[in-house]
Amino acid sequence: MSGRRLVLALCLAAASIAAAGAQAPPTGADAIVRSPAFVAASDFLGRDYDRFVRELIALTEIPAPPFKEQARAAALLEMLRASGLSDVEMDAEGNAMGLRRGTDRATLAVLAHLDTVFPEGTDVHVKRDGTKLRAPGVGDDTRGLALMLTLIRAMDAAHLQTPHDILFVGNVGEEGEGDLRGAKYLLLKGKYKDRIKSFISIDGGDQSNITNGALGSKRYRVTFKGPGGHSYGAFGLVSPSLAMGGAIAKLSRIKVPANPKTTFNVGVVRGGTSVNSIPTEMSMDVDMRSESPDALNKVVADFHAIVQEAVAEENAARSTKEGKVEAEVTLIGDRPSGETPVNSSIVQNATAVLKSFGLTPHYSISSTDSNIPISLGIPAITIGRGPSERAHALDEWTDVEKSSAIKAAQVALAIVFAAAQ
Ligand SMILES: [Zn+2]
User: Fold this and answer.
1) Lower CB count within 10 Å: N or C terminus of the chain?
2) Which residues surround ligand 1, an ion (CB under 5 A)?
C-alpha cells in the first residue's frame, strides 16, 4: 500500500468510525444486552414463559375477524392493565393500548395486531402438537400480542428505565380490507400522533428478518352495471359479465417489471343472479403491488385504462337500446410504499442486537403496519415474533419450545429497549 493510499484508507476508516459514532445509541447493543437491568429482565422472561403460553392460547381462542376485533381487544385491554402500564385505554378506532413512561416525552410505539384473516365461525381452538401450537391466527399475529405482554412484564419486573415513553398497542385492521386502519388512526388522528417518533411492529416469524421497506399496494373494487334481461329473450343486449371478462383478459396481459417487483391479482369476482339472466351487476376486487411508487402508479394507470376500454368495447359489441354497461371503480385499499434506511439508528440498533444474539440479519420489503409511519417519515421496522409458519392458512402453527421461545422474547426485548434509548 502506498503512503497516499494509506492516508486515504485511514481517512475513510476515520470517516466510517465518525459515521458509526453519530448513529450509535448512547449505549451499544452489546452494552444493553450485558447491562444488569437487561439481564434481570431476560431472567424474568424465563420465569414468565408459562404465562406467555397461557395468554397466547387464551388470546388465540378469542376470534378476531377483520372489523370484529372488539372481544379480543377488550381481553387484551385487561391484560395490559394487569401488566403495570399507565394510561390503558381503547381509542376510537378500537386499538387497545397503554403507556410505559420514560424520562422524555418522545414516544416509541410498539405494535402487534389484533385482527386475523379468518372469518367468523372459524374453529380457533388451539391444538397442542409437541412444542407446536396449532390454530388459525396463533402465529400471525397473536404470538406478537402475547410476546408484547411478556416484554412489558419483564421491563416492569426489572425496573428498566428508558429515555423514551413506550406506547404498547394491540391494533386493529392490519389485514386485508382493514387497510392498516389501526396504524393510520394511531399516527394520523389519535392522541399520540405528534409524539410518536419511532415505531416497531412485531409481525413476522423469522427473527433474523428486519422489514425496513414498505411494499405499497392499491386495491380496487370495480362494479360493472347494465340493464340485464332474459338470456334468450333479450339476447344481444350489453352484459356486465362480458365487460368484466374482457377487462380480466386484458389485465392478464399487462407486462409488469420483475425488478422492482410489481404484481397484480384479481382476487374475488362476484355477481349475477341466475344462469338464464343477463346480469345487472358484476364486480371484481383487484390488488396491485410494487416495491416502487412509480411502478405501482404505472400498473394502476394501466388498470384504469383497461376498465374503460373493456366497457367501451362491450357497449360497441352489443345493443345498448335498454341502457349501457358502466363501471364504477372504488378504492378499497391504499398502502403507501417507502423505506427506513438501513443506516438509520433504529435499523442499525436492531442489526447490532441480532448479531449479539448470533443471528445473521437480513432486510426485506413487505406490507405491514410500518408502511404508515414510513410514509410519514417516522423511522419504523417490523420484527419477528419467533418461529411460526402457514400464516393465513387453517393449519397455521407456532413453535413454543421453551428455550427458543425465551430467546425469541429476549431478542425482541433487546430491540425494543435499544430503540427506546
Ligand atoms: Zn400479521
Assistant:
1) N
2) 140-141, 203
